[in-house]
Amino acid sequence: MTSEIMNLKNLYELIEISSSKFPERIALSENKNGSIISLTYSELLYSIEKKSNEINNLGLIKGSNIALSGPNSINWVITFFSILKVGHTAVPIDSKMNQQGMEFILSFTNAQLFIVDNTSKIKISDNFKSIIQQMDHISIKLETEKNKNLQSSVLLKNVTSVTTDKKNEVAQILFTSGTTGEPKGVVLTHKNLLSNIHDIHKILPTKNYEKSFSILPLHHVYELTCSLLHNLSKGNSIHFCSKIDLTTMVREMKLIEPTIWPVVPLILEKIYKNISKNLSKSLIQRIFIKITPRIFGYVLKRKLGLNKLRLLLSGGAALNTTVEEFFKNIGMTITQGYGLSEASPLISVNPLGNERIGSVGKIIESCEVIIKNKNSLNHGLITVKGPNIFLGYYKNKEYSDEILKNGWLNTGDIGYIDSDGYLY
User: Fold this and answer.
1) Residue 148 reports pLDDT greater than 50
2) Using alpha carbons only, what angle is made at residue 230 by residues 225 and 233, rounded to the nearest 5 degrees?
3) Per residue in 20-35, pLDDT tens?
4) Whether the Cβ atoms of residue 115 and residue 102 lie closer than 8 Å to each other
5) How many Å apart are CA 32 and CA 252, to the nearest integer?
């Protein structure tokens, strides 16, 4: 599908194509009350169609900002794509954000609708209660194997195709945490995100039916693009972990047996610290890992439910090289990348099989990177240009002009590129 990506008119077409190619494949799954529930690609397409019709019937002006908030879930994905399908802009909000932050975003973006996971738990002032709507509960269920193919074909026939070219239109506005003032809205188009998916396809040319294990929030573009959109575009499945603690994660990983796991360094560092703590208490284990590190890694993967893992991705922050070396030594090579929300997010990633410790890899094909103001070590300011670079900050021209000049993004990060093209 690599060659198809840049010809797509909008993100919703990713779902249309995958559902036509793999209608019966599991697209999404989650744990509800102790049971794993899932949606196939045909069921996902139909669910989005149903929800998008509901939104369309509200009569909102095309291009309206629609906020959504909730933990990672099948319903979150249905809501997100439904907003895009009818020509609106999605404004994902962290469900753990405080009331003041939520109300700032709703007001600042003039959100016409606020779709939340649970209306009874949301704390919001009366000014915004009229625009709140609850995410639908999953109602699509193909009950028996006997009528599964028949029902799936009926579902697909009843789905309206979208042909509108929205590539240059805004797909979403992602807000930063606001650690240096009010949150800033990163404006990303369909084209921005599609270009990143196109590059990921070239870098990670997986051809098998993969299972990705999702623990990072979808309101962050790293998880949205590199996990959700990337895997849906390949007809893979994504499982949303019900709770982010090691016990729950291990229990659900053993059930799902993921082949792809996108994480942030903090997760890997926690696992490393737990292992180091246990090793310090056992001479036998220290000898075991020293003599047979790969066998130790095999045992660890089985213990974590990662015995089928093929791709361990890390991004979002710098990875400690000691941790990276440890995992590589036990046969769990980490593929580290680098990016920013403003770049949709990917800028560079290590080539599979040619990862380098301490490096965030090679620049993706569609991007150009220039290191400015180099010092004597050739270290300098990383600036980036490409189709994945955002339009600017929402209603903040002054700061947009400061960070984005002639299409070049000032990342604010210092780095260098070695003679082989690896970014550090």
Assistant:
1) no
2) 130
3) 999 999 999 999 888 9
4) no
5) 12
